[in-house]
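## Example pair
The file below holds two records. Each record gives the amino-acid sequence first, followed by its structure token line.
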Amino acid sequence: MQRMWRTSVEGYTQCSLTKQRDKLVAIAGIANMVQVALNEVYFAGLWQENLVEQLAWRVSADASLPTRQASLWQQYRAPSWAWPSVEGTIELPVRVLQHRDYALDIAYRSPQIELLDPAIPLGEIKSGSLRGRGQLYTMAFSNTDSLRKGWTWGVKTAKNQHTWCYLFPDRPLSALAMHKNRIYGQERGPERSMVDIDSDSVILTVLMLAYTFRPKGQPPEGYTGHALALQHAGSRGTYSRVGLIAFRSLSAESWALLQQARLRSREAAWSEAFDDMSGFHTVVLV
């Protein structure tokens, strides 16, 4: 049933809709069938169980798929952390709970979803938010990887080895420079954007979703996981998602270099709260 859902979403998001606001309504029939079969809570294209794993969806980078250029529609459709908020072919992760050495701590009774019509539980959404506690970073990505032709964070270790974190934007990153104070078409006042972009580099706030470490001899060796690229979205500690970051087999040396980018104070991260004991920031995704 879960495989059917992933296949349905991928096939469905390749299609064009006359009214883009109808995206959730159009897939509601399949969602209802899966919900009845699995007896799970559904909201905004995602499921309550193993939610952290599901947040690692991405806009397809596979050139063999008929992917349309990803974009964010001005009319609100879903919170940024849910795939219906963007346009483009969506790849869903396998929704299986795996061993994690770290995972984002999602708050109790989160996410919060407000429906446009409460009488239609699988229908259009008026607003949505997700609160969690986790590790925040500031990372600079470049668009100069000639082999992959994508956005990467790379380090060259003492052993002359290159390791990478790959950024999969939810929409063209050039849009961030033009809409730093615009959230889903709603004008905001002058605020700290947390985004700095030029033609071949971008600096983003990053929220770690989950990672696993495997020692030598247990492939994939090193650190493997996902994170969310964020843009500041108004009040302190509130962010919107702008992309997915994936990394695989980072060596201990590369991981140590990445940790230098970790934000370890409330003011540095512009977060809602910071726990000195755990080193976690409290953030709200909208």
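Second record, same layout:
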Amino acid sequence: MKEVTAVVRPNKMSVTKDALDKIGYRRMTAIPVLGKGKQRGISGELNFYIQPKLLAKRYSTGMKYIPKRLLSIVVNDEDVDQVIKTIIGVNQTAQIGDGKIFVESIDEVIRIRTGEKGELALK
């Protein structure tokens, strides 16, 4: 099993969720996060108003953190490539700020309610 963690634009979360749902991955964890990278705070991505004087200041000093969504999905090994392709397919704009995907091995999954382990806990 693998954990696929993606950091995506907030405005892409709905289409990402729908695309993953279409390939059978309805279970996921999504968390609003703040981060920074090469993008350095493109204001067009923000969902709230920024006062013009603060916007002017941002261009001179750079915004420290911008809103993103962190999406975590535990998948079977054979589904990792399909999940990654799906996430890239709906999030790739060829612009700085499209996000990142991380893949890590998961040793065990246990459903708390039933005690089921492994692939049974993912169903």
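Notes on the second record: The chain has a mean pLDDT of 85. The two ends are 13 Å apart (CA to CA).
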